[in-house]
Amino acid sequence: MKNNLFELSVRDFLSPKMLKYAILPFIITLVVMYIIFFGVAGVGLDQLHTTFDVQTTQTTINNGVAHTNNFTAHLQNSSIIKFLMQYALTSWLAAFLVYAIGGFFVLYLSIFVAILVLGFMTPFVLKELQHRHYRDVEMIGYSNLFEGIFLIIKWSVVMMLLFIVFIPLYFFPLINIIALNFPLYYFFHKMMMYDISSHIATREEERQIRYFKKNSLRAKTLILYIISLVPFAIFFGAIFYVIYLGNTYFVEVKKIRNKEI
Question: pLDDT, tens digit, for every residue of 23-73?
Fold first, then answer.
């Protein structure tokens, strides 16, 4: 059944209508990332248009006479970068920090933005799935605007706190990989589960599915999150995530309602 759901989700994703839906999150996420990138780059360039004074004082004693040598450098604009880059160590550290921090920031931010964009596309994708496969399953849902906003803020705050709490773990190899990714996976899992379940199931049905299928759902969201870590994968595959998890929830809700009958 698991393989059938995956194959079904792939076929759904490759349908013309779903591919059209997939384009919108791709374009919106790219535009948002483009604006953020050049906004941050502009701030960084503005910071370089400042002056930086370097002063050193060295005192030596020669034949009992103290001699003081003063060194003053007035660095401006790109001279700051040249000053840092003329030494191998500072050059390596600067490059490492730029690429490492910048790479993590762009990758994580792209996942975060894509998840938020998906929230607007989910109802359309789920209605299409219902029309294709689950016409006998009514989409009841239990969400409302205020609850959704509150939960997004709540999970975002928890995510940021986890990033801060895990700071000591970032210095340990291998452990730091988990520590860096767990906070965002937490947000990813919570948002995806809420986004899908709140449109299909009742609150009681969602509780039952979360209780009996929690390990299966976590395994699916973990695999999807790992795929998201591949550069640009989240741009193209975001709608597939909704399709795959949507099919999962439709099947589970159908089972629950059939048992009640």
Answer: 776 677 667 666 665 555 445 444 444 444 544 555 555 555 555 655 555
- Alpha helix stretches (DSSP H) within the chain: 2-13, 16-48, 79-85, 88-133, 145-165, 175-200, 203-212, 214-228, 233-260
Shortest CA distance to 106 belongs to which of 22, 30, 163, 172? 30
CB 191 within 8 A of CB 152: yes
Token output for 132: 């294709």
Buried b (16+ CB within 10 A) or exposed e, 36-75: eeeeeeeeeeeeeeeeeeeeeeeeeeeeeeeeeeeeeeeb
Phi, psi (degrees; rounded to nearest 5) at 224: -65, -35
H/E stretch holding 72 reads: strand 65-76
Q: Which of 239, 241, 231, 243 is nearest to 26 (CA)?
A: 239
Using the 8-state DSSP alphabet, how is residue 170 labeled? Answer: G
pTM for the whole structure? 0.72
pLDDT in tens, 183-241: 989 999 999 999 999 999 999 999 999 999 999 999 999 999 998 888 777 777 788 99
Residue 134 CB partners (closer than 8 Å, separation 6+): 250, 254
Start-to-end C-alpha separation, the chain:
23
